C-alpha cells in the first residue's frame, strides 16, 4: 500500500457501552478497566523488557534442555530477571528432571541402486535410546498410519526400520489440530514398530512447512505395547519426500541411522516463581507461566522463551503502573515441560502442600505471535466472567474467548480444580520452526511478543480486580 | 509446547444456528454456504497456486515499478496467470503511468569532528528529484514535526537540509495508524522544507522496527506550498538514530547526499483484468484486486504481489469447485498504485464508460499475513449484509467485520458509489519490510497467504450468491 489510510470507527467505546448495558456492570468500573488496560498496553509497547529479556535468554543461554548446564543457568537467569522486574519475592521449587543428552553425531542416509549416497537431515527424538557408534542399517518399510503397520505385521516389519510418512493435515485452520493428529507417530511410533520387531523408527518431521528442518520432540516407550526400546528419529519434510520418492522406484532401500543419545541419571532442577504479594488476599494466587526448559537444538525462542518473558513482564508492568494487586500475582518459569512435566507437577504439589488457593492459572506456550485471545476453563465459571470483558478486549484484537483451554504445565493444577487459561496467539507459523534449530531469537517480532504480554497482563489485571 | 492438545468446542455449528435464528435466513442456505466455504478452504489450503504464482512474480520478475520493463513483464505474466487460473476472458485496461527511475548511486553520510565518516543507509523517495552526481552538502537541521519547522523558519532552514526525525507511535495497536500519522513527513516534507529554503529533505524511515533498512515510498511536490523541488530521501531507523545522537553533541553537522533519480516521460501501461462471466447477471461485477506494480528495491512480495495472487486465485478456486457465479467475478491486477493510482482511475473510468454495475469491490493490499476479517463500506448496505455472515466466518478466524474499508486502487470506484471492502490481515510485521529491499518472497508464509486468499474467496462467494 502507498499512503492511503483506511478509516475505522472507534468501536471500543461503543462496545464498552454495550458491554455495560448487557452485563450490568457499573460504567465507572468498566471505564477504570478500560483506562488501566490502555496504560498497560502503553507500558508493554513502549517500555517493557520482554524483548531484551528474551534476547538474553536465547543468545546468552540458548537451548536449555532439562538437566543441562544451560537449564541450570536459565534458573539463575530467571531468578535475577524476576527480581529485576520488581518481584516482592522469588523462590525456587525443586523437582527431579530427566537428563537426556543428544550426544555427538546424528546421521541418516541410504544408498541408491546407482550407488549415490542420499543423506537425510535427521534428529533423534527426545527420550530415545541411541543406536551407538555402529549405527543400525536395515530395509525401510514405509507406512502411512498404525493401521497399515498392523496389517503388515511381524512378517514384514521384523528386523526392519519403520518409516511413518505422516503429513500434517493442511486443511486444518488451527495448526495445533494438525499437530495433535500427527504427533502420536512421534510419541508412540517406536513402541508400535518395536511390537512387530522393528529395529528403529523414523517419522516425517511434525511441521506445517515443506522445508529441510528436522523437528525433534519427545517420544516415550510404552511398555504396555512393547518392552523393546528401539531408536527413534525424525527426518526433515524434504528428507521424507526424498525417501518416499526413492521407495516408489526401489523397494529394497536400506536405511542407515546413527544416533548417540542416552538418558543419564535424573538431575535436581527447579521451577522459578516470582511473586507480587497481594494486598487484600495474599494467600490467593493468580499465576501466569511458561516453560524455562527447551529443546537443545535451537534457542527455545518461541517454545517457550516467549512465554517465560511474557510471564515475567507482568511483574514489571504492575510495578511500573503502581498496580497493587488484591491477590498474589505469580510469574512461573516451569522446568521440564518438554520431556516430563516434572515442574508442572512440582508446582501443583507445592500448591497442595502449602494449601494455596489459586484463583486462575494461565499458560503461555504457543509462541510469541500476535495474540488472538484466550481459551478459558468452563467448569469453574471463569469462562463466563472472562466473556464479560470481551468488549474491553475488542480494540486490542484479543477478544476471541474460547471454551476450554490451559496448558501442559498447569494441567496438574487443573486436576486440582484450578480454573485454567491458555493464551492463544496466531499459530500459523509456530510449527514451521517448532523443536528445530531454527527456533531462534531472530524469529521473534518485538511488537507481536509485547502484544502477547500485554494481553496476558490485561486479562490478569481484570481477574485480580474483579475477584 | 510438547504434545498437549487443547480442546475446543466446535463453535462453528453453534454460530451457524445462532446466526440463522437472528437473521432469519433459511437454514439450508446457511448450511450450503458453510459447506461451500469449507470446500473453498480445502482447495486454498491444499491445492491452490497462490504461493507458486507469487514465487514466479517475485523471483522471475522481481521489483516492478510503474514504467519499468519489469512492470511490463508483470502485465504479460498476470495475463497468462489469469488464463491459467481459468478466466473466461482476460483483458488489459490501458493507462499512462509515471516513469520514475532511481538511477545508480545513492549515498548519505556525514563526517564527525574526529574526522570519522558516518555512512547512513538511505534511499531516494519515489517521485523525488535527484541531487545529480555532485550531490548536495549542507548543515542538517533536525525537527520533530512541521510545527517545529515553521517555528525555526527561513532564518534557520535556508540553505540547509531538514531532517524529520519522526517515529512511529508504537503504542498504536494497528501499525497502519502509526504509519498514517508519520507518513505526511515523507509525503510533503520536501515541499514544507523547501518553503523555508531548505536544499534537501531527509525522513526517518517509516517503520515499526529498529533496524537498518531504508524504506522508500512516494512523495509529492505540492506547488501550493513551494514551487521549488528539492531532493528527498529516507534514512534507516538506525541511521536516523546515528544522526540524531551525533547532533546531540555536535550542532554543525554537514550532511552529504547523493541521489540520481529522475522522472522520465510517462509510459503506456495496463491493468490486467481476468473474469469469470456471471451466469445470471453477466453485466454486474464483483471484483477483488491488488496492485501489480511495486517499488523497485525489493520484490514486492507482501506489497502487493500477495494481493495480486490472492485475487487471481479466486478464478482458479471457483473453477476447481465448479462454482458458476451469478455475477461476473473479476480479479484485477492494478497498475501504478505506488506512485500515481493511474490504474485505479483507469478502472473506474472504464467501468463508467462501459456502464458496468459493480456490486462490490475488494482490495487486498495489506500484506499476505494471517487474515483477521474485513473492513466494509457502510453507506450502501453491504456492511450489514457481511455482518450477517459473521457466524460463517467464526471457525476461520476471519470474523472481524469492521465499519469502513476499501483501498487506494478502488477509491475511484468508491467515489462512484461502489460498495468497497478492505481485506484485513494481521499487519504487525507489515511495516518492518514495507517499501524496503527486504520485501521479498522468503518473507511469505504459504499458509498465511492461502488463508488470506481463502478468506477473500469465501466472502466473494457469499456476496455473489446472496445478491
Helix-strand blueprint:
Two copies of one chain form a homodimer.
Chain A: H1 11-23, H2 27-46, H3 50-61, H4 69-85, E1 89-101, E2 107-111, E3 117-119, E4 122-124, E5 136-143, H5 146-157, E6 161-164, H6 175-195, E7 200-204, E8 232-235, H7 237-249, E9 254-258, E10 262-276, E11 281-291, H8 301-321, E12 327-334, H9 342-353, E13 357-363, E14 371-376, H10 382-388, H11 390-393, E15 400-403, H12 411-415, E16 420-425, H13 430-433, H14 446-465
Parallel strand pairs in A: 5-6, 6-7, 7-8, 11-12, 11-13, 13-16, 14-15
Antiparallel strand pairs in A: 1-10, 2-3, 2-9, 4-8, 5-9, 10-12, 14-16
Helix pairs in contact in A: 2-8, 2-14, 3-8, 4-8, 5-6, 8-14
The oligomerization state is homodimer
Radius of gyration of chain A: 24 Å
- Which secondary-structure class do the elements of chain A indicate? alpha/beta
Biggest sheet strand order of chain A reads: 1-10-12-11-13-16-14-15
Give an account of the 3D structure:
Two copies of one chain form a homodimer. The first copy, chain A, is of the alpha/beta class. Helices cover 39% and strands 23% of the residues of chain A. Chain A has 14 helices and 16 strands. Chain A has helices at residues 11-23, 27-46, 50-61, 69-85, 146-157, 175-195, 237-249, 301-321, 342-353, 382-388, 390-393, 411-415, 430-433, 446-465, and strands at 89-101, 107-111, 117-119, 122-124, 136-143, 161-164, 200-204, 232-235, 254-258, 262-276, 281-291, 327-334, 357-363, 371-376, 400-403, 420-425. In chain A, the strands form two sheets. In chain A, strands 1-10-12-11-13-16-14-15 form an eight-stranded mixed beta sheet, with helices on both faces. In chain A, strands 3-2-9-5-6-7-8-4 form an eight-stranded mixed beta sheet, with helices on both faces. In chain A, strand 2 (107-111) and strand 3 (117-119) form a beta hairpin. The model of chain A is unreliable at 3-24 (pLDDT under 50). Chains A and B meet through helix 2, helix 6, strand 15 and helix 14 of A and helix 2, helix 6, strand 15 and helix 14 of B.
Amino acid at each position: 500500500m502507498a499512503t492511503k489510510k483506511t478509516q475505522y470507527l472507534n468501536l471500543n467505546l461503543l462496545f464498552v457501552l454495550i458491554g455495560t448495558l448487557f452485563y450490568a456492570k457499573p460504567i465507572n468500573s468498566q471505564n477504570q478497566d478500560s483506562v488501566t488496560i490502555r496504560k498497560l498496553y502503553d507500558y508493554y509497547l513502549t517500555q517493557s523488557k520482554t524483548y531484551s529479556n528474551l534476547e538474553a535468554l536465547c543468545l546468552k543461554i540458548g537451548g536449555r534442555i532439562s538437566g543441562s548446564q544451560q537449564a541450570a543457568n536459565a534458573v539463575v537467569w530467571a531468578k535475577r530477571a524476576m527480581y529485576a522486574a520488581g518481584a516482592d519475592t522469588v523462590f525456587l521449587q525443586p523437582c527431579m528432571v530427566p537428563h537426556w543428552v543428544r550426544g555427538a553425531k546424528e546421521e541418516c542416509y541410504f544408498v541408491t541402486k546407482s550407488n549415490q549416497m542420499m543423506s537425510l537431515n535427521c534428529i533423534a527424538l527426545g527420550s530415545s535410546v541411541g543406536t551407538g557408534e555402529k549405527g543400525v542399517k536395515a530395509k525401510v518399510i514405509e507406512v502411512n498410519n498404525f493401521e497399515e503397520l498392523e496389517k503388515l505385521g511381524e512378517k514384514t516389519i521384523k528386523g526392519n526400520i519403520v518409516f511413518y510418512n505422516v503429513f500434517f493435515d493442511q486443511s486444518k485452520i488451527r495448526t495445533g489440530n494438525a499437530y495433535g493428529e500427527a504427533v502420536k507417530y512421534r510419541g508412540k511410533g517406536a513402541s508400535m514398530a518395536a511390537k512387530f520387531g522393528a529395529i528403529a523408527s523414523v517419522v516425517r518431521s511434525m511441521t506445517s512447512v515443506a522445508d529441510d528442518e528436522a523437528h525433534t520432540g519427545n517420544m516415550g516407550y510404552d511398555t504396555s505395547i512393547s518392552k523393546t526400546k528401539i531408536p527413534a528419529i525424525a527426518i526433515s519434510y524434504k528428507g521424507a519426500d526424498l525417501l518416499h520418492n526413492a521407495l516408489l522406484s526401489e523397494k529394497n532401500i536400506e536405511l542407515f541411522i546413527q544416533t548417540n543419545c542416552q538418558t543419564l541419571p535424573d538431575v535436581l532442577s527447579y521451577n522459578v516463581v516470582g511473586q507480587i504479594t497481594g494486598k487484600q488476599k495474599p494467600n490467593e494466587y493468580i499465576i501466569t507461566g511458561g516453560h524455562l526448559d527447551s529443546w537443545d537444538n535451537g534457542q527455545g525462542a518461541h517454545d517457550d522463551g516467549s512465554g517465560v518473558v511474557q510471564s515475567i513482564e507482568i511483574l514489571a508492568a504492575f510495578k511500573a503502573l503502581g498496580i497493587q494487586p488484591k491477590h498474589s500475582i505469580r510469574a512461573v518459569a516451569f522446568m521440564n515441560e518438554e520431556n516430563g512435566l516434572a515442574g508442572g507437577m512440582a508446582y501443583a504439589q507445592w500448591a497442595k502442600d502449602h494449601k494455596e488457593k489459586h484463583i486462575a492459572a494461565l499458560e503461555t506456550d504457543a509462541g510469541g505471535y500476535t495474540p488472538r485471545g484466550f481459551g478459558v476453563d468452563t467448569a469453574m465459571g471463569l469462562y463466563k466472567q472472562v466473556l464479560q470483558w470481551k468488549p474491553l478486549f475488542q480494540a486490542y484484537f484479543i477478544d476471541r474467548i474460547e471454551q476450554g483451554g490451559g496448558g501442559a504445565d498447569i494441567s496438574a493444577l487443573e486436576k486440582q480444580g484450578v480454573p485454567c487459561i491458555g493464551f492463544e496467539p496466531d499459530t500459523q507459523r509456530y510449527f514451521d520452526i517448532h523443536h528445530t534449530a531454527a527456533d531462534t531469537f531472530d524469529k521473534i517480532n518485538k511488537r507481536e511478543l509485547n502484544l502477547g504480554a500485554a494481553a496476558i497482563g490485561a486479562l490478569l489485571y481484570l481477574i485480580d480486580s474483579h475477584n
